[in-house]
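Suppose you are handed a protein chain with no further information: no name, no annotation, nothing but its sequence. What can you learn? This example shows the usual starting point.
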Amino acid sequence: MRNCREITELVSKGLDTPLGIGERLSIKLHVMMCSRCRNFQSQTQFIRKAAHRYTEQLQDRLDKKS
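A reasonable first move is to predict its three-dimensional structure. Written in structure tokens, the prediction is:
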């Protein structure tokens, strides 16, 4: 089984590139048992979504000004 450092690296990598089935399974199994990595995963997903929404709102404002 992978350690926490490896899992956090996979979670971060998965934000930018598709992960293989083995990598996704490793994450799922690990976060079922590790609350710290589970929190890291949920926080990184939240930050990613918030940043995406923010840039969409900025783009909408710029489009309205044009």
